[in-house]
Each structure stands twice: as structure tokens, then as C-alpha cells.
Write a structure and sequence with these properties.
Distance between the termini: 93 Å
Radius of gyration: 35 Å
Keywords: Membrane, Transmembrane, Transmembrane helix
Order of helices and strands: HHHHH
Number of helices: 5
Strand content: under 5%
Oligomer: single chain
InterPro entries: SA1362/YqhP-like
């Protein structure tokens, strides 16, 4: 089946290339106008298909349920680590007007380090280090 289709396809491609070259030489403005029209129609068709069918599938092709879970996890992570919002830099005059706190150690909260973990060991081996 492919043996007799191959020459037909090559012939159609050669005729199309000849027609494009002929159209470009004889009527350049009409050719460019028709090309712009074809590209515009193709973009409109692709946009309609994308917004009707492909948009709801998500960026990575995952289901909507997975995306909801991901967004919820991101929200929980932001709440846990309290990521600060970007601050606007103030002018140098406002720095002079603000007072530094009297005791910076008192204002600082003790922060839990989530990367540190207590490892449970053998509790039976209590050594009295003072007896050595």
C-alpha cells in the first residue's frame, strides 16, 4: 500500500511547492495576505481547542485532584514556615526616625529548627558520668 502512495505524496508536495513559488513571484501581496489569514485561522482554531479541551488538564498533564492536593500542600508549607511578604524599601529618613529596640534578644522568638530531630537511643544504658 505504501509503495504506490509514496510517489503520489511526493508529486503533491512538488506541485504545492511549485504553486507557492509561482504565487510568490506573480502576486506577492496576495500571497502574503493569504498566508497571514491562514496563520490567523490556525491560531484561532488552536486557541479554541486549547481553551475548550486542554486547559483543564493542567500543565503537567496531571488530574485536577492532584493539582488541588499540590496547592493545598503549598499553602500548608507557607503557613508553617511563614514566608515573609516582600517589603518595600523605605527612604533613608525613615530609618533615622525609627528606634532600635532596647533588648534585641528579648524580641527574638525561639525558632524550632525542622531539620533537627531527636533520635531515640537506648534508655537502659544510663551512665553516671560524674562517677568516672
Amino acid at each position: 500500500m505504501r509503495n504506490w502512495m509514496t510517489p503520489i505524496i511526493y508529486t503533491l508536495m512538488a506541485l504545492a511547492a511549485f504553486f507557492v513559488a509561482f504565487q510568490l513571484i506573480t502576486d506577492t501581496t496576495g500571497f502574503l495576505g493569504s498566508m497571514i489569514t491562514m496563520v490567523g485561522v490556525a491560531v484561532l482554531i488552536y486557541g479554541a481547542i486549547y481553551f475548550l479541551f486542554l486547559r483543564n488538564r493542567g500543565v503537567s498533564g496531571g488530574s485536577g485532584n492532584e493539582m488541588k492536593k499540590y496547592k493545598q500542600a503549598v499553602k500548608q508549607s507557607k503557613q508553617k514556615y511563614k514566608q515573609p511578604t516582600p517589603t518595600i524599601k523605605k527612604s533613608p529618613l525613615s530609618k533615622v526616625a525609627s528606634k532600635p529596640s532596647a533588648n534585641p534578644k528579648r524580641n527574638r522568638k525561639r525558632m524550632n529548627a525542622p531539620h533537627l530531630r531527636v533520635i531515640e537511643g537506648n534508655k537502659n544504658k544510663d551512665k553516671n558520668r560524674a562517677s568516672f
